[in-house]
Specification:
By secondary structure, this protein is an alpha+beta fold. It contains 13 helices and twelve strands. Helix 7 packs parallel to helix 12 and helix 9 runs antiparallel to helix 12. The structure holds adenosine-5'-diphosphate.
Length: about 350
Amino acid sequence: MKLTDIEPFKQIKKRFNRRNFKKRLVKLELFTEVIPDGVVLLDERYLIVAANDSAQRLLGLPDSAIGEPFEDHVKVPRLRNYMRGEAANKEPLEFTSPIQKDSVLESRVFDVDQKSRAMIIRDITTLNRLLTMRQSFVANVSHELRTPLTVVKGYLEAMTDPESSDDLRLGLIEKLVAPVARMESLVQDLLLLTRLESNPVPPDMHEVDMASLIRNSNHEVQGLLRKKDTLTIDCKTDKKILGLPKELHSVCVNLISNAIRYSPDGAEIVVSWEDAGDDKARLSVKDHGLGIAKEHLDRITERFYRVDMQESRGRGGTGLGLAIVKHVLRRHNSELKVESEINQGSLFFCEFETVERSLR
Ligand code: ADP
């Protein structure tokens, strides 16, 4: 069967004169070749009448497949049954690519007329990955909230027990502070991360004096420092950058508080702001703490990824700090770099273009 024998084509042909029809046909052919979705046209015996480039690529169909049975070339039994079933109102079929085992494809089948069917094939690997990520994100958030909630519930039950003494009740009220604070910082981090991911970078970037911003962040983390810890701020340049002060502040606070939290008592932390040549300046936070093994370095900026869950929770972490840092830096055309060695310490750093360079 020829493409032009199909009923919808005949109707189009009726509406246009011969010349226009040819032009439209060429355009249609071009269109089917450029769309990323695969289109396969099948006749009543499921022989392939036509297949665009994308269909050939997604299903591994050779040019010679035209005119031959679809099933001879695509050996996916589920797709075969789906293709032969009722076309109307059918849910799309998801199946593993016959030529690439880690790709997921989706197919839909439509009746073109009584004698032919069109099959549309889409690569949904990325979409599937995003859905899985969303599901695991929701599962992670629920899990993170459940732990402090269970603690709060337990304390409240003990408090409402008529047998509990007033002294015990007072003691329990104090114990509620930590899990409630934990839930609060988790919710704050989640809201910030969502804002960073969904809001575009605002057009009004400010000129930011990084040296004073770093000094201000230093004040905020003072409460985390233990008696023997030392935190040195070393600003060697007064270079300014264009940026969003609140977001840059959260970068500094997250990196410095991690340096404190993942160092044993007597931590020595140095935060520097220095010239990095070529109209660039570098922010770095160095500690001599626990360090991070190589195999974790690529993953620590993923949401909720921790090298050691107990360690992070015990130190008041939400698992979102470095994900926030990564997003903020991306919004400032920068990226987080890490050098670390187990039990030797870590160096987190990033470079920014200075105002002069950004305005050029
Ligand atoms: P958390 O709230 O758990 O600290 P982050 O996103 O800030 O979450 O960090 C992710 C993980 O990276 C931490 O759980 C920890 O394992 C590791 N990490 C981050 N900063 C440091 C550091 N300075 N030293 C050692 N490990 C670190």
